[in-house]
Amino acid sequence: MKILKAIYTAHCFLIFLLLFILLQPLFIIPILFKKQFRLVGLANRLWAQWWSVLVIMPYRIETRAKLNKNKQYVFCPNHFSYLDIYSMSLNPHDSIFVGKSDMESVPLFGFMYRNLHITVDRTKLRSRSQSIQDALQAIDDGKSLMIFPEGGIVSKNIPQMATFKDGAFRIAIEKQIEIVPVTIPFNWIVLHPDKLQMNWRPTKLIFHEPISTQGLTLEHVAELRRKTFSIIEEELQKHLK
Fold first, then answer.
1. Are the CB atoms for 232 and 181 separated by under 8 Å?
2. Whole-structure pTM value
């Protein structure tokens, strides 16, 4: 069984690399032509969908409310696995990531990530502040955002979530756009962050009803953060019983 898992893990990472190389031209277009940023969502979905097929890992997307393709949102998923980036790449609503700058060090992938998404070094106050400004500007440019509100894979007791940070909720309130809580219940079982080994099982992605921020001020950040946390936590408990 260990040998089979090792072979399957190697296959998954090889397919990831080959698809990334194959789709490079599609990723390069929005880097060169900023107004074509919606191609980022298309490229992400193609990469994730093809990867799912080629590694024989079916997925299910459950949407609790229809999202308006002409509106912008801040998507906030729980984060227990590196596989969560793949899952959020399946997002049917064109969006960019706001994520840790660690990804920039990955050869080739780091170049793409740095130029298409927003990166932040959470150990540096200046970087955190700049990422907020970049996110606000991205919204002004017409982009939706995907932000892991835990600030990375930081939970000490997966699958229990860590405390959410304020950034995503400050951004949503300042720009008066809706928060979409997202529950990813099983990825930590497929690829645990402490074990670089793939375990086969179908994955799932749940987009909850958007939470309005109309009329809210920065005084409501904590309330919005708690509400988002509660929605995701309640769904996690349903799936993990």
1. yes
2. 0.95
